[in-house]
Amino acid sequence: MKLGLIGGGNIGQFLLQSVNGKQMIPNTTISGMFSRNQKTAQRLADVYQVINHESIESIIQSDVEAIVEAATVQVVEQSAAQILASGKDLILSSVGALADSHFYNELMSICQANGTKIHLPSGAVGGLDILKAAKSNGELEAVSITTTKPPHALENAPKDVRAVIFEGSASEAIKLYPKNINVSIILSLAGLGPEKTNVKIISDPDVKKNSHAIDAFGAFGRLTLTIENDPMPSNPKTSYLAALSVLATLKNKDEWIRVG
């Protein structure tokens, strides 16, 4: 399978190294990429032997079979519809874009009309299979997530004191912290939706790793899950598990037997 890649940041570089460099997915290669930083894009293209496209439109018009987005919410808002309408599947890293229910429904309609699919990696959290099962009969009652990060991983966070910097819905959280709280949106899409998923964000100068504490209950019982993520070495705002989950999604995309 030929893949296109949008984004040359931490996750994009990790995927280039894993897919092209280490050949971790049989019969799959990233053959083309686009990044707004064309200097970085050309360097990566030379290292991993991919075509450096000068626009997203160019990569859409190429012979890639699916496109991986590893950029920003804004890129998804601007390009997802065009990608899906072109007949290409989309693997979405910036799931925060789907907090907007109107946009979500628009993309779903485009997928239905063109026979395409959006694949959503689990990101830096777990427990999504439990939430999907629990809501299957409409008896999932409540879902919340508390995210704790060191101050340097959050914008405008106090540096010297532990503080709750946000408390509210997932839809509100992603507007204020689009680079930090994608986890709340993937959690909400598996569960009760962005408006009904409660989010608390804590800045703590005494922690060195990102952590996410998930709590949910309903007719199935109760889920309590805490995940402590190591950040990617080159960017404390990105959890390493988030990058791994994109790679796992690519590996599982066309598996004959799937778990969960």
TrEMBL record:
Enzyme class: oxidoreductase
Associated pathway: Cofactor biosynthesis; NAD(+) biosynthesis; iminoaspartate from L-aspartate (dehydrogenase route): step 1/1
Annotated catalysed reactions: L-aspartate + NADP(+) + H2O = oxaloacetate + NH4(+) + NADPH + H(+); L-aspartate + NAD(+) + H2O = oxaloacetate + NH4(+) + NADH + H(+)
Residue stretches making up the Aspartate dehydrogenase domain: 162-247
Residues that coordinate or bind NAD(+): A124, N182
Its job: Specifically catalyzes the NAD or NADP-dependent dehydrogenation of L-aspartate to iminoaspartate.
Keywords, comma-separated and alphabetical: NAD, NADP, Oxidoreductase, Pyridine nucleotide biosynthesis
Family of this protein: Belongs to the L-aspartate dehydrogenase family.
Source species of the chain: Cytobacillus horneckiae
Other remarks in the entry: The iminoaspartate product is unstable in aqueous solution and can decompose to oxaloacetate and ammonia.
GN (gene name): nadX
Name of the protein: L-aspartate dehydrogenase
Keyword Disulfide bond annotated: no
Active site: H212
Domain Aspartate/homoserine dehydrogenase NAD-binding: 7-121
Single GO molecular function: aspartate dehydrogenase [NAD(P)+] activity
Known EC number: 1.4.1.21
GO biological process: NAD+ biosynthetic process
